[in-house]
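Practice problem. Given the sequence and the SMILES for adenosine-5'-triphosphate, write out the predicted structure.
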Amino acid sequence: MLEVKKINRSFDGRRVLTDVSFTVESGRLTGFVGRNGAGKTTTMRIMLGVLTADSGEVRLNGAEITESDRRRFGYMPEERGLYPKMPIGEQLIYLARLHGLTPAAARSNTTDLLDKLGLADRIGDRVEALSLGNQQRAQVAAALVHDPEALILDEPFSGLDPLAVEVVLGVLAERAAAGVPVLFSSHQLDIVERLCDDLVIIADGSIRAAGDREELREQYAGSSYRATFGADAGWLRDQPGIVVREFDGPNALFDAESPEAAQAVLRNAIERGPVFNFTPHRPRLAEIFKEVIQ
Ligand SMILES: Nc1ncnc2c1ncn2[C@@H]1O[C@H](COP(=O)(O)OP(=O)(O)OP(=O)(O)O)[C@@H](O)[C@H]1O
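Answer key:
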């Protein structure tokens, strides 16, 4: 488990991280989301030791993290770092050897990963000869080739087509299932929502929400309901204690000022005809995101 505890960081007197704290659990995929400039990359760099914090600490499995711990991390930096002119296979083997793997292990990890990432037949190609999406897959391979004990990936899904997203996700999920803590940043909220076990939302350098995805959805559920009736639900607009948020014939999404007001809607609806659906609405990540970053 990786813990970020009360990290503060300023650049030239301007505070960009304020008391940033969150946890990346072992064996779970944690998505890190926030608008441009919110502080994701700075936080990740501090976790990696590429940048120092002004105060606060990063802990691994309960102890303050050391340089040798960090050498066993896998990192995919924002500024991608492969050598354009070097063949991809050679480069991955080199990186694995730098991390202390034997030549045989370095070779077998390389071929295994390129195979899983759909790049097996490109092993001898130079990085610059790959399409951008394939370069991105190669970057993911570079972060994983030395069997890291923790993974920190800055935007690993940017620029990938939907099939490539699935391929990369499969590889990351496999590492998480093997017990590795995996943190990745992304602007693609739909992907994060689908893939992640846990979420961390940052805005203006402070954490606005963090934790289990479903628990967060529960927590931000508020008092909204989704309903599908047998006929047009226009009458809802005149129902006391209700604010209609979305309306489409028999379908409605509404906020109720109290549980009683919601139950009154249900009673009224049943008197009017069939009710096909009446459930508390759990917000999507995009809705939670909008709410917490304001
Ligand atoms: N080396 C630096 N010197 C000065 N300011 C910096 C430096 N690195 C980052 N910042 C500032 O810190 C803030 C946070 O930047 P950061 O790159 O961490 O955001 P981010 O959430 O990763 O954004 P994006 O989604 O655009 O990558 C920004 O205002 C940025 O301009």
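Check your answer against the key. The CA atoms of residues 115 and 121 lie 8 Å apart.
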